[in-house]
Amino acid sequence: MSSSTKTFTFEEVAKHNHKKDCWIIIKGKVYDVTPFLDDHPGGDEVLVTATEKDATTDFEDIGHSEAAVEMMEAYFVGDVDTNSIPAEQTPKHTPSPPTLAPAYNNQSFGFVKILQYLVPLLILGLAFALQYYGKKNKSTESEN
């Protein structure tokens, strides 16, 4: 990396957002990872979804090895003007938030817990009663 490093705006980097031209931003540096897409252990889609945003958090959350960090140097193309990065970035593929189960009051929750315990016991008791009744009927039929 020389002292005459090119500086890109966020908008310039964000244009490189597909499999044939994929640039990502990590720790204020811009990497052209297009040639690495096929070799990336996590698949090319992981890198493509890291475009159009600062992917530093995504990169650090994975816990890349030292070898992976050193390998990045080969794909370095310049720095990003950090002032051009939007303050709030929304991910390209925002997963829908999980739906919450309806809140039950403690009384109805306790009733459900009791039913979860009693219903299997009632079924088991019914099975034993039918088995006993069936054996008793067979023994009375064989005596006649």
Write up this protein:
- This protein has helices at residues 10-14, 44-49, 56-62, 66-72, 106-143, and strands spanning 7-8, 17-18, 21-26, 29-32, 76-80.
- The chain has 144 residues and is of the alpha+beta class.
- The protein folds into two domains: 7-84, Cytochrome b5-like heme/steroid binding domain (Flavocytochrome B2, Chain A, domain 1, Roll), CATH 3.10.120; 101-144.
- It starts with 6 loop residues before the first strand and ends with a helix.
- 11% of the residues are buried.
- Keywords: Electron transport, Endoplasmic reticulum, Heme, Iron, Membrane, Metal-binding, Transmembrane, Transmembrane helix, Transport.
- It is a single-pass membrane protein.
- One of its GO terms (molecular function) is heme binding.
